[in-house]
Amino acid sequence: MYWLLSACILLIFAIWIIYKLEWFFIFLGINWGKGPNPFTEVLKHDPPHQSTIEPQAVRDKVLRKGFLPKHVPDNLDAIIIGSGVGGLSTGALLAKLGKRVLVLEQHDRAGGCLHVYEDKGYLFDVGIHIIGQLSEGMMTTILIDQITDGQIGWNTLPENFDRVVIGSGDERIDFDVCSSLTGNKFKDDLVKRFPNETKSIEKYFNMQKAARLSFLPAMLTKFMPKKLILILRKLNLLNRIFKYYNYCEVSLKTVVESLIDDKDLQAILYYNYGDYGTAPADAPFSMHAILQQHFIQGAYFPVGGPSNVAYHLIQTIRKAGGEVLVRAKCTEILTSTDQCKAIGVCVQKGSESINILAPIVISNAGLHNTYNSLLNASVKQKYLLDGVCNKFNPGMTCLTAFIGLKGSNEELNLSATNIWHQVSNATQQDLDNFCNLSMEDALEVDLPILFISFPSTKDPAWSAHFPGKSVCEVISPVPYRWFEDWRNDYTDGKKGDHYLTLKKTFGERMWSQTLRIFPQLKDKVDYFELGTPLTNSFYLQYAKGEIYGIDHDVQRFSGANSCYLKSTTPINGLYLTGQDVLSCGFAGALYGGVLCASAILKRNLLLDLVKMRIEYKKKFQKGKEKAKSD
């Protein structure tokens, strides 16, 4: 009897230890590494959301500085391949510690999806439409203030930042997705609209919150050795210690269908899967939960447009003696003779190959591009990198229409609310049916989902620079296979009349669907350009035109595979940054940059940011209380 009692006590103790190990690893994370801290005293906008905005022509002198050997700084500390959010944020964090960083961009302007382009008097943002969690004192706000010296302001978008439109005509359903200070308005509005599903809606949002709260502790696995993660996985302990992975390994569709019966409600809950590009049947519940939680307390857009963010990140890099150069295509990551260490990159300039050396090489080019295209075959074979790449599929590609409109935002009655239009409430089935069509058949039907946005309504500085004009962007997912016959042709002229006809037909279809929601825009089009998956491939340098890097599916986020998506690589001195390290989107790529800088500096910068947020609240909340008492 005594033996049995002792065994029971030991078993209970062991179970308790397992469930408390998450906090043990958090403690380890807090005390991990003694590297230097790039963060300084907490900055605070005064007045809130004030921004330094230079004219686009001034910004372009920085954003479009071309590569020449004479522009490369001496005594580099690091080279970064790619100037997207991940690359620039990593570079800025290193620069805050005086590191001399060279960022190389293959495109003719820096910024990745932060970049803008102007054509025939219209300015278009190519990748940023909405960002969350940027109110005063939020961790992301503090981070951006730190790496831009507080130069970025944020325009608060309307409470109804997104609108779901399902169907058309008399059967059309509209539902506004709203933010609030409490973060409960989206849920409360759903309960009002679907009272019979109240308990299910409560369960759904409780699961969302649980997934969000488990996210930050699970990020500590990004600092843990891969072997340790695999051992924990083998012992069935990883998901018990880090609850987040339980939410990663179940699909969004499985969760929603297990809770919700109403098809309209299901479609509304699925509505913004296009923000990460994976359909509900394949998307992990965790990804969707964190995305929707990201916006429920407010949505924002950078004052001066996305290129203003890139501009100030580059200024931080340049202040430390670094540089950002465009039209600099890296063709290879150079390694030491024994292939154990990255030592630099090779840049193709015309017919000349130029080697640039540095002790650290950071790739923001994506996992597949880095391992498949930038390392030679013997290095790939030595580190079995093909096996790593095969674990992850390429993500979604799309059509993007850029439309210039005659008339101001006010004249055309446009708002900053994004529209997510689904042709019916059969979200998954509609997408599957469409993607299984031949391209010729697809030209005869409506696209199953459209994202419609008016960037000109989101930037308060727009009307001063572009009076009497506004812009619209429409995005829709399509299969890459429809376009791959033209993949080796780089310009529309080489692709031939058939390709141009397809572009025209798809563009007309997208605009026709848009006019059903915005009939006032008929005959207002002054400029129309359609980007295809091949456009994405050319400008983003992704083989399948994927706009979000590797697919955001259950396979990617599983505990078994997440350990391969870290900033560190098997090659000393080679690091990964950006969206493939964490997730897509501005915030995902930004924090991918933080994880990369953490690995290089051997310091957990995420926990430094948590501490800074606590410090901010203490410091400035006291100031508010004092002001009220006065």
TrEMBL record:
Coiled-coil parts of chain: none
Record flagged with keyword Cytoplasm: no
Lineage: Eukaryota, Metazoa, Porifera, Hexactinellida, Hexasterophora
Protein name: All-trans-retinol 13,14-reductase
Record keyword Flavoprotein present: yes
Keyword set, alphabetical order: FAD, Flavoprotein, NAD, NADP, Signal
Species this protein is from: Oopsacas minuta
PANTHER family cross-referenced by the UniProt entry: AMINE OXIDASE DOMAIN-CONTAINING PROTEIN, BLR7054 PROTEIN
Top-level division of the source organism's lineage: Eukaryota
Record family assignment: Belongs to the carotenoid/retinoid oxidoreductase family. CrtISO subfamily.
One Pfam family recorded for the sequence: NAD_binding_8
